[in-house]
């Protein structure tokens, strides 16, 4: 075999692609991999979170004091309705609910770590009847039952910690009071499941579902009247529109739950 020496062609190691474009492609690929990795990490942490003993969640919650309203007729009534709702929701033995009433004018209510449920006077005073109040309380208690607060917090802390490590952030307030409450955002699926559980609780409590959707009618009316951004905090992940009410009405129909029944008025101490 005879070898022939040939000159190397010009520009054999030169590409027509601009080096900045190649850099951009590499950076985009790295970002996609990082985002995907962090997402999977957060998802995995969320899947494991429900197995955290509720006692640990309760101890964690004790580090973040919740505003307490003055004890009176309103608080006693709210506690009485809460106890009745809990009785029909069949919570696990290790989970209990602690109700807090805030005198603030915020139109809001939410569930947080350790079974703590906070109801603000601003929302309570707008509710038209006890049936709507029961729906509200059952919705928040359902979040506790499903362990949504600890799942949300675990995902948030995991994702924030991973991003902080990758990006070199050193001043993250992950477990401070502000950090904890910032991360307690429930997903659309969590909200939908809480709605279903709450509607079932209202049916068990009153023998019908009339008044349950009054909660969402009230919030939607306030939202439209005040022009308050994307809605109140405890339902940010789920649109406050007729689709939500249609879903609940369809669920009522599919279970053959009566939609007609007696509406229980709120006591004067709550209305005034």
Overview of this protein structure:
With 272 residues, the chain is mainly alpha-helical. Helices cover 56% and strands 5% of the residues. It has eleven helices and three strands. It has helices at 19-48, 54-61, 73-89, 121-124, 130-145, 148-167, 177-183, 188-206, 214-226, 242-254, 268-271; strands spanning 98-102, 109-112, 116-120. A three-stranded mixed beta sheet has the order 1-3-2. It is elongated and about 105 Å long. The mean pLDDT is 79.
How are the secondary structure elements laid out?
Elements: H1 19-48, H2 54-61, H3 73-89, E1 98-102, E2 109-112, E3 116-120, H4 121-124, H5 130-145, H6 148-167, H7 177-183, H8 188-206, H9 214-226, H10 242-254, H11 268-271
Parallel strand pairs: 1-3
Antiparallel strand pairs: 2-3
Helix pairs in contact: 1-6, 3-5, 3-8, 5-8
For this entry, give a set of tags.
272 residues, 3-stranded mixed beta sheet, mainly alpha, single chain, elongated
Enumerate how many helices there are, as a single number. 11
Helical proportion, percent range:
55-70%
Order of helices and strands: HHHEEEHHHHHHHH
Radius of gyration in whole Å, from Cα? Answer: 26 Å
- The fraction of residues in strands falls at 5-15%
| Biggest sheet features | 3 strands, mixed
Would you report the number of β strands? 3
Strand order of the largest sheet: 1-3-2
């Amino acid at each position: 075999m005879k070898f022939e020496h040939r000159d190397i062609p010009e520009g054999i190691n030169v590409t027509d692609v601009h080096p900045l474009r190649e850099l951009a492609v590499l950076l985009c690929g790295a970002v996609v991999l990082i985002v995907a990795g962090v997402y999977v990490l957060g998802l995995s942490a969320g899947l494991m979170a429900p197995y955290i003993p509720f006692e640990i969640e309760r101890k964690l919650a004790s580090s973040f004091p919740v505003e307490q309203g003055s004890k009176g007729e309103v608080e006693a009534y709210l506690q009485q309705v809460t106890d009745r709702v809990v009785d029909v929701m069949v919570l696990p033995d290790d989970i209990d609910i602690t109700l807090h009433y805030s005198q603030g004018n915020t139109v809001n209510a939410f569930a947080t770590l350790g079974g703590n449920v906070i109801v603000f006077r601003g929302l309570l005073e707008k509710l038209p009847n006890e049936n709507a109040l029961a729906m509200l309380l059952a919705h928040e208690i359902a979040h506790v039952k499903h362990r949504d607060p600890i799942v949300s917090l675990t995902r948030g802390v995991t994702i924030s910690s991973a991003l902080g490590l990758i990006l070199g952030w050193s001043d993250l307030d992950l477990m401070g009071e502000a950090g904890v409450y910032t991360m307690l955002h429930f997903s659309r699926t969590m909200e939908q499941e809480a709605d279903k559980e709450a509607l079932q609780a209202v049916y068990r409590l009153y023998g019908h579902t009339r008044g349950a959707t009054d909660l969402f009618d009230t919030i939607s009316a306030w939202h439209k009247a005040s022009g308050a951004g994307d809605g109140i905090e405890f339902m940010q992940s789920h649109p406050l529109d007729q689709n939500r009410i249609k879903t609940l009405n369809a669920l009522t129909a599919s279970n053959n739950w009566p939609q007609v029944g007696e509406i229980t008025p709120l006591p004067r101490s709550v209305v005034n």
